[in-house]
Every structure is written in C-alpha cells, then in structure tokens.
Amino acid sequence: MTKARKTSKTTAIPSEGLRIDIGISEKDRAAIVKELSKFLADSYTLYLMTHNFHWNVTGPLFNTLHVMFMDQYSEEWQALDEIAERIRALGHYAPGTYAQYASLSSIAEPKNVPDATEMVQLLVKGNEAVAKTARAALKRADEADDAPTADLLTRRLDVHEKNAWMLRSLLQ
C-alpha cells in the first residue's frame, strides 16, 4: 500500500523531464500560485454558498433569487476549473480539498440557513471578498509580467463586481 503524498497549497510539481521555462521565475510562479490558491479557495467557497442558497431560498422573491443564484453558481463552477488549470500551468498543484479551502478562504460560511435578505447580503460580501482576493493576486501577476493570469483575474473581477452590484440592488 502506498502512502498518500501530502501537498501544500503551493507545492511545486516535481521536475520530471523538462523544466518550466515560460519567462517567469520559479520564485515568481510560486508567489502567484500562493495568491491564486487563495483566490480558488474564495471562489469555491462562494460557489458552494451560492449553490446552497439556491437550494434553500424561500419567501416572496423565491423565483427571482432561485434563478439568479443558479445563474451565478453555474458561472462560478466553470471558472473554478480555469483557475485551477492556471495554477497547474504555472507548475504547481491546485488545492482541491475542503480542508485546504477552509484554511485558505477569507469567506466565512453561515452556520445556519439565513433568510432571503441575509442570503443576498452574504453573497454581496462574498463576491466583494473574491474581488479583493483577485486584486491581490492581480497585483502579484502584474509584478511578474504574467499576462495570462492577469487576464483571468481581470475577467473574474468583472464578474464578481457585477454580481455584487446586482445583488446589492435587490437590497435597495
């Protein structure tokens, strides 16, 4: 029986053949991956919260919120793969367990099922948290001249800022 190998959030892939030579140093790639791992954790936590709220929303805005939450979690789900694949392209393993996400995420999960208004408030805060995490990662990517990561993060920022605006509009 082989022992499972533990990997940290920024564990580099062992060199097996060709070294990665994309014009970004290993040190810079590791720093970018550290930030992308936090971004992936926040994104996954927000995805899970949004899906949970989709299942459990009640009240007069049920249909509106149920559909809106589904649109948002479906889009978020697709983005998770792109983020993880960018981490892999930079030569590191992507975090992929609940324990890793819990230790990396800046988003606190609710302890119970909130009412519809609180769900919206929590999702506004969650989208804003993801945007802040994206900005920190974007700064690191820009410093290393990592255009593909910067592009990914810029696109994600647009989505999360728009989601926060739309959700916030429901509270006014």
Summarize this entry quickly.
The protein has 172 residues and is an all-alpha fold. The protein is built from 5 helices and no strands.
Overall residue-averaged pLDDT value:
91
Instruction: Point out poorly predicted stretches.
Output: 1-9
Which structural class best describes the helix and strand composition?
mainly alpha
Helical proportion, percent range:
55-70%
What's the CATH topology label? Ferritin
**Per DSSP, what share of the residues sits in E-state strands of 2 or more residues?**
under 5%
* Distinct helical segment count: 5
User: What distance separates the N and C termini?
Assistant: 59 Å
Structurally, how many domains make up the residues? 1
The CATH H-level superfamily is: Ferritin, core subunit, four-helix bundle
The CATH architecture: Up-down Bundle
Number of strands: 0
* Overall form: elongated
Q: How would you sum up the major sheet?
A: none
Radius of gyration from the alpha-carbon trace, in angstroms:
17 Å
Order of helices and strands: HHHHH
What is the C-level CATH assignment? Mainly Alpha
Keywords: DNA-binding
Family: Belongs to the Dps family.
InterPro entries: DPS_DNA-bd (IPR002177), DPS_DNA-bd_CS (IPR023188), Ferritin-like (IPR012347), Ferritin-like_SF (IPR009078), Ferritin_DPS_dom (IPR008331)
GO molecular function: DNA binding; ferric iron binding; oxidoreductase activity, acting on metal ions
